[in-house]
Amino acid sequence: MVDGPKQRAAERALELVRDGQVIGLGTGSTARFAIEGLGRLVREGLSIKGVPTSIATERMAMELSIPLVDLNETSTIDLTLDGADEVDPKFNMIKGGGGALTREKLVALASTKRVILVDESKLVPKLGQTRLLPVEVLPFAWTLSARKLNQLGCTSSRREQNGIPFVTDNDNYILDCDFGPIEDPAALEERIKLLPGVIESGLFIGIADTLVIGSEHGVEVRERPA
After folding, report:
1. Domain housing 92
2. Which of 4, 74, 134, 213 would be 202's cystine partner, CB 3.0–4.6 Å?
3. Which residue in 86, 104, 136, 200 is the catalytic one?
4. How far apart are CA 171 and CA 106, in angstroms?
5. Residue 189 known to be catalytic
């Protein structure tokens, strides 16, 4: 029995997986359903290798006996399955709610096809309407990065967990930035990436190829508009 829009989307996305592929394994609640499904398929005889986008995903995949390969050890990734925090009509995304945005973007950019699994609530007219924009920064200069980000028109705050700074798998901090609705995501991404101390932005521009959208009524698959 499939329960909930996220799991519906994950099950539909698994239909795109083929034997012998290298699969990018996303991070987050929706990606978790896809990874669980891949584990089931591996037990049934599917031969794949996974490239995890976070330590948490790596641990989960190992528990499910999904063979893993390091990004540096593979020339290409055939297909990446991941989620998103927001998606606009042009398939631009905000990601990084789980703090894995840098590795998620690297794996996505190394992939031939990027499939994004979401429920209907993640679809927005403009990015930044429902979610803050995560930016990964060096701890050494995080206050400088925060000031520079604020000068771009946002209010930023260092992400904390249980009262202490949240630290990414890359040993960096996350600044959550409130820009409000973002009029030009591509231009903003470029400006953010030029700031001192910034490692990566949670703006994913022109990366998603296919959206698999789960709802209470079923699943819709959309391809990125030309």
Report:
1. 5-123+205-223
2. 134
3. 104
4. 16
5. no
